[in-house]
Design a protein that fits this description.
By secondary structure, the protein is an alpha/beta fold. The protein has 2 domains: about 60 residues, no CATH class; about 190 residues, Vaccinia Virus protein VP39 (Rossmann fold, 3-Layer(aba) Sandwich). The chain is built from 6 helices and 16 strands. β7, α5 and β8 form a beta-alpha-beta unit. α1 runs antiparallel to α2.
Length: about 280
């Protein structure tokens, strides 16, 4: 229902289809009118209405920029951590339609990425967003000071490769700020074996703007994440939170400030710790 989402939908699918979609969803939002809130959005910084069709924090969004709680938490952390120094930083965001764009575009350089099977890695769309796989990024070693992602890493089959690539492309002292749906314990939900998905837990799909059927969650991520995936190069910790009914947090994966990546050809290197398939 956010204006930005309606605008993007109209451009992609046409005005008539978008209006029909809005009318179909409108009764759900009207029914939850008592949960709407009026306040300043921490992403777009405007006085706005936060609309919702659910009691979950995930579905209460800014009327203008579509930010929800996790994006607002990221916005708060980015502003507090960098302030005016952001304009001296090089930033990668793993989201082509993020409400954080207004903040991050003030960086020295700001690249946006998406992932889509079948597209050439490193290729760009008409809007400038690049196709990138977080486990095999096309960027050189020590390219970025900041990486930002919101509910991406739980969909990565080999999570240790994602953190290895984070360490590779970050400069010493740089960080990856990210959110994932909070769970009680970190464990694999599924894995890829010989190119096929093997489910360990009941399949769980999350909403995905690039796929009507949604996107499969390969991981649950819990408070034990730092113990399981921190390495000599990358320290993982909670940066902000927990907040809201769901206990949302912003995680930070911070590159060792005294470390320097020296790898032949920029090949990924796995962290020293990993999670067994059973999550035990």
């Amino acid at each position: 229902m956010a204006l930005l989402k309606i605008y993007r939908s109209a451009r992609q699918y046409g005005l008539a289809r978008s209006i029909k979609k809005v009318l179909n969803k409108l009764p759900g939002y009207v029914g939850k009118l008592y949960l709407w809130r009026v306040r300043r959005c921490r992403c777009c910084d405007r006085i706005t209405i936060f609309l919702t069709n659910s009691s979950a924090d995930e579905f209460r969004v800014c009327l203008f920029c579509s930010a929800n709680l996790r994006y607002e938490l990221l916005a708060i952390d980015i502003k507090n951590r960098f302030g005016q120094k952001l304009r001296e930083k090089d930033v990668l965001e793993l989201d082509p339609h993020s409400p954080l764009k207004n903040i991050l575009s003030g960086a020295r350089s700001y690249k946006r990425s998406f992932y889509e099977t079948g597209r050439t890695a490193g290729s760009s769309r008409a809007d400038g967003a690049m196709c990138e796989d977080i486990t095999t990024l096309t960027f050189k070693n020590e390219t970025f000071d900041l990486i930002v992602s919101s509910d991406v890493l739980e969909h990565v089959p080999v999570l240790e490769k994602a953190f290895s690539e984070t360490a590779r492309v970050l400069r010493p002292g740089g960080c990856h700020l990210f959110t994932v749906p909070p769970r009680a314990k970190t464990k694999k939900r599924a894995e890829m074996i010989d190119g096929k998905i093997q489910h360990i837990e009941s399949p769980e799909y999350h909403l995905d703007p690039l796929s009507a059927k949604g996107i499969l969650a390969f991981w649950d991520v819990g408070p034990d994440l730092p113990r399981l995936f921190s390495s000599a190069e990358l320290r993982i910790a909670v940066s902000l939170g927990p907040c809201g009914r769901d206990g949302r947090v912003v995680w930070i994966a911070e590159r060792n400030a005294s470390d320097s990546v020296e790898r032949d050809g920029g090949e990924p290197q796995s962290p020293t710790n990993s999670v067994p398939p059973s999550g035990g």
